[in-house]
Amino acid sequence: MRRALAGEDLRPLSQALLQRADADPHEAGALLDAAILCEFQGRAALAANLRREALRLCRHYRVQGCAQTPALRVLALKAAGPLLANTPIECLLADGDIALEVYYVGEDLPDPETLPEHDLLFVAIGESDAHQPLLAHWAERLRAWPRPVINDPRQIIASARDRLWQRLQGLPGVLAPPVWRLGRAQLADLAAGQGREGYGFPLLIRPIDSHAGQGLTRIDRAEDLAALLASHPEPTYFVSPFIDYRSPDGWFRKFRLVWIGGQPLPVHLAISERWMIHYLNAGMDGSAVKRAEEADFFKGFESGFAQRHAKTLAALHAALGLDYVGIDGAELPDGRLLLFEADPAMVVHDMDPPAIYPYKLAPMRRLFAAFREFLSGVSKHRPPGLGQGV
Predict the structure, then answer these.
(1) What CA–CA distance (Å, rounded) separates 305 from 330?
(2) β-sheet with 174-175: strand ranges across
(3) Contact present, 74 and 101 (Cβ < 8 Å)
(4) Shortest CA distance to 4 belongs to which of 93, 91, 116, 89?
């Protein structure tokens, strides 16, 4: 991932991995690595085929770089799917004395009678419609698991966009806009001027189970909605009102933070002239002004943002009910937090170029250290099974 984010051409490495797998039909690790590289290259169909073949051969993988004599053995339970389908826990445990292993599960895979030996089980399956049955199944299996479990699958299910906003209504200091699940027929009625009670333009619309803004569109007029339906085949969409969250200076700011065992920690602050912000498209690389503001965000997080929103953040974490979970949001001019998304599978990493982002090194080290300390504490003090969770 680090090399992909640095813009390196990974095609030679992909080819070498495929040749390795071709030479040894049992080389599942090379196939899985090649699948990941193909994802970075936008070759989704090939990635899916390689991943399927890898998991047919082997579902248990030891992550490289783990200690030979680990202080703790963590097993991450992942769904058979693309990178964004699961929590990228590998990025949080790249170094140190914790051994990380991954076991893949899925409805198309035989249900394992047992799992590899571990001290702690981390449910890394991300929320999606496709994962709901899988999460429900493992929630039942893990109820009396013989080892402590991090992230209750039932709470992952409850983090779905169209469920979460209802749980957060009335939470002080939070604006969680409604998210409606609408089919093509309902959207066609809206485009035709029918059934608009409660739905006012502008609207945000995205296909179900999309990630990272893929397919996210702002709809300002009925004509725009009709055009979108004509060009997109998806049967069901999430629809929500567009909230203009720009700051008084006209720029849009999106923060990401994660809770690790109840402690909120900053991940990034993206600043853009456009409302649809992703860190990679916000122009942070080319703006010293934006990076200086983000550096101040990190530096003053505890005494500034976290203190300013202490009660709100505590209430949000309690409502989410997950040990490890991230949110994307914005500070509104009236002081409330606008919630875009809550997700235990958000990407958290330290792979931005240090020459451009030197101020990120220390906060990310603190975050990773907090994660390792949290895992160690859970393994020592939490009872086995799902227990009480957070």
Answers:
(1) 11
(2) 174-175, 337-343, 324-331, 252-260, 263-272
(3) yes
(4) 91
What span, in angstroms and rounded, lies between the C-alpha atoms of 241 and 33? 40
Backbone torsions φ then ψ of 267, nearest 5 degrees:
-115, -50
Query: In CATH, what is the architecture of 178-241?
Result: 2-Layer Sandwich (3.30)
DSSP string, 171-232: -TTEE----EEEEHHHHHHHHTT-S-TT--SSEEEEETT--TTTT-EEE-SHHHHHHHHHH-
Tell me if 365 sits within 8 A of 357, measured CB to CB: no
CA–CA dist 373, 265 (Å, integer): 14
- The pTM (predicted TM-score) of the whole model is 0.92
Residues 265, 362, 286: CA angle, nearest 5 degrees:
90
pLDDT digits (tens, 9 = 90+) for 95-134: 788 999 999 999 888 899 999 999 999 999 999 999 999 9
Chain centre to alpha carbon of residue 351? 16
Residue 10 pLDDT grade (very low, low, confident, very high; cuts 50, 70, 90): low
Phi-psi region of 347 (alpha: psi -120 to 50; beta: other; left: phi over 0): beta
Report which DSSP code applies to 360: G
For the chain, the first-to-last Cα distance in angstroms comes to 30
Please report, to the nearest 10 degrees, the dihedral formed by the alpha carbons of residues 253, 163, 345, 183 taken in order.
Answer: -90
Give CA–CA dist 73/117, Å, rounded: 8
Domain 252-380 sits in CATH 3.40.50.300: no
Tell me: domain 1-58, CATH 1.10.3470, correct?
no
Instruction: Tell me the sheet residues that pair with 207.
Output: 237
